[in-house]
Specification:
It is built from no helices and eleven strands. By secondary structure, it is mainly beta. The strands form two sheets. Strands 2, 4, 5, 6, 9, 10 and 11 form a seven-stranded mixed sheet that branches. Strands 1-3-8-7 form a four-stranded antiparallel sheet, with no helix packed on it.
Length: 124
Protein backbone atom coordinates (compact mmCIF):
# COMPACT_ATOMS: atom_id res chain seq x y z
CA UNK A 1 0.00 0.00 0.00
CA UNK A 2 1.06 3.56 -0.74
CA UNK A 3 0.10 6.37 1.63
CA UNK A 4 -0.59 9.66 -0.11
CA UNK A 5 -0.68 13.15 1.37
CA UNK A 6 -1.76 16.16 -0.68
CA UNK A 7 -0.85 19.75 0.05
CA UNK A 8 -0.88 23.15 -1.64
CA UNK A 9 -4.58 23.91 -1.82
CA UNK A 10 -5.99 27.28 -0.87
CA UNK A 11 -8.10 30.27 -1.84
CA UNK A 12 -7.12 32.13 -4.99
CA UNK A 13 -8.69 34.52 -7.46
CA UNK A 14 -9.65 33.64 -10.99
CA UNK A 15 -6.59 33.72 -13.22
CA UNK A 16 -4.19 32.85 -10.42
CA UNK A 17 -2.02 29.74 -10.15
CA UNK A 18 -1.53 27.06 -7.53
CA UNK A 19 0.75 24.03 -7.30
CA UNK A 20 -0.52 20.96 -5.55
CA UNK A 21 1.84 18.31 -4.22
CA UNK A 22 1.20 14.66 -3.45
CA UNK A 23 3.86 12.88 -1.43
CA UNK A 24 3.88 9.10 -1.17
CA UNK A 25 5.20 6.81 1.51
CA UNK A 26 4.95 3.16 2.38
CA UNK A 27 6.17 1.59 -0.85
CA UNK A 28 8.42 2.60 -3.69
CA UNK A 29 6.41 5.03 -5.75
CA UNK A 30 8.57 4.96 -8.86
CA UNK A 31 6.55 2.32 -10.70
CA UNK A 32 3.17 3.65 -9.75
CA UNK A 33 0.72 5.30 -12.07
CA UNK A 34 -0.46 8.51 -10.37
CA UNK A 35 -3.50 10.64 -10.97
CA UNK A 36 -5.29 13.74 -9.76
CA UNK A 37 -9.04 13.83 -9.40
CA UNK A 38 -11.36 16.49 -8.06
CA UNK A 39 -14.79 16.58 -6.54
CA UNK A 40 -17.04 19.60 -6.17
CA UNK A 41 -20.08 19.59 -3.86
CA UNK A 42 -22.90 17.39 -5.15
CA UNK A 43 -20.84 16.30 -8.14
CA UNK A 44 -19.12 13.06 -8.97
CA UNK A 45 -15.39 12.71 -8.63
CA UNK A 46 -13.83 13.63 -11.96
CA UNK A 47 -10.51 12.96 -13.57
CA UNK A 48 -8.07 15.84 -13.90
CA UNK A 49 -4.68 14.46 -14.94
CA UNK A 50 -2.44 11.41 -14.67
CA UNK A 51 1.18 10.46 -15.19
CA UNK A 52 2.93 7.12 -15.57
CA UNK A 53 6.45 6.02 -14.65
CA UNK A 54 7.79 7.09 -18.05
CA UNK A 55 6.40 10.57 -17.36
CA UNK A 56 3.77 10.22 -20.07
CA UNK A 57 0.86 12.47 -19.16
CA UNK A 58 -2.89 12.46 -19.60
CA UNK A 59 -5.32 15.34 -19.13
CA UNK A 60 -9.03 16.01 -18.99
CA UNK A 61 -10.11 18.30 -21.80
CA UNK A 62 -11.29 20.88 -19.27
CA UNK A 63 -7.77 21.45 -17.94
CA UNK A 64 -5.64 20.77 -21.01
CA UNK A 65 -3.31 23.69 -21.69
CA UNK A 66 -3.78 25.11 -18.17
CA UNK A 67 -2.69 22.32 -15.81
CA UNK A 68 0.58 20.43 -15.82
CA UNK A 69 1.20 17.16 -13.99
CA UNK A 70 4.74 16.10 -13.18
CA UNK A 71 6.58 13.78 -10.83
CA UNK A 72 9.84 13.69 -8.95
CA UNK A 73 10.51 10.03 -8.23
CA UNK A 74 13.48 10.52 -5.83
CA UNK A 75 11.16 12.72 -3.76
CA UNK A 76 8.21 10.32 -4.12
CA UNK A 77 6.12 13.30 -5.14
CA UNK A 78 3.65 14.13 -7.89
CA UNK A 79 2.76 17.74 -8.65
CA UNK A 80 -0.18 19.46 -10.29
CA UNK A 81 0.62 22.95 -11.52
CA UNK A 82 -2.67 24.74 -12.05
CA UNK A 83 -2.60 27.95 -14.08
CA UNK A 84 -5.33 30.36 -15.10
CA UNK A 85 -7.66 28.98 -12.48
CA UNK A 86 -11.38 29.41 -13.00
CA UNK A 87 -14.28 29.31 -10.53
CA UNK A 88 -15.33 25.97 -12.05
CA UNK A 89 -11.97 24.49 -10.98
CA UNK A 90 -12.96 24.85 -7.32
CA UNK A 91 -13.15 21.45 -5.67
CA UNK A 92 -11.42 19.08 -3.31
CA UNK A 93 -8.45 17.69 -5.20
CA UNK A 94 -7.38 14.11 -4.55
CA UNK A 95 -4.22 12.28 -5.45
CA UNK A 96 -4.49 8.61 -6.37
CA UNK A 97 -2.08 5.83 -7.30
CA UNK A 98 -1.90 2.28 -8.55
CA UNK A 99 0.93 -0.08 -9.33
CA UNK A 100 0.82 -0.88 -13.01
CA UNK A 101 -1.27 0.56 -15.79
CA UNK A 102 -4.98 1.32 -15.60
CA UNK A 103 -7.36 0.23 -18.29
CA UNK A 104 -8.80 3.73 -18.15
CA UNK A 105 -6.72 6.38 -16.36
CA UNK A 106 -9.84 8.53 -15.97
CA UNK A 107 -11.77 5.88 -14.01
CA UNK A 108 -11.33 6.42 -10.25
CA UNK A 109 -12.19 2.76 -9.61
CA UNK A 110 -8.91 1.79 -11.30
CA UNK A 111 -6.85 3.35 -8.52
CA UNK A 112 -5.84 1.53 -5.35
CA UNK A 113 -4.70 4.26 -3.00
CA UNK A 114 -6.02 7.75 -2.30
CA UNK A 115 -5.01 10.78 -0.32
CA UNK A 116 -7.30 12.72 1.97
CA UNK A 117 -7.73 15.63 -0.44
CA UNK A 118 -6.88 19.31 -0.44
CA UNK A 119 -9.39 22.12 -0.98
CA UNK A 120 -9.03 24.55 -3.86
CA UNK A 121 -11.31 27.58 -3.86
CA UNK A 122 -11.37 30.06 -6.74
CA UNK A 123 -13.13 33.38 -6.38
CA UNK A 124 -14.39 35.26 -9.41
Amino acid sequence: QVYLVESGGGLVQAGDSLRLSCTASGRTFTWHFAGWFRQAPERAREFVAAIDWTHSTYYADSVKGRFIISRDNPKNTVYLQMNDLRPEDAAVYYCAALRGSPGDEADPDEYDDWGQGTQVTVSS
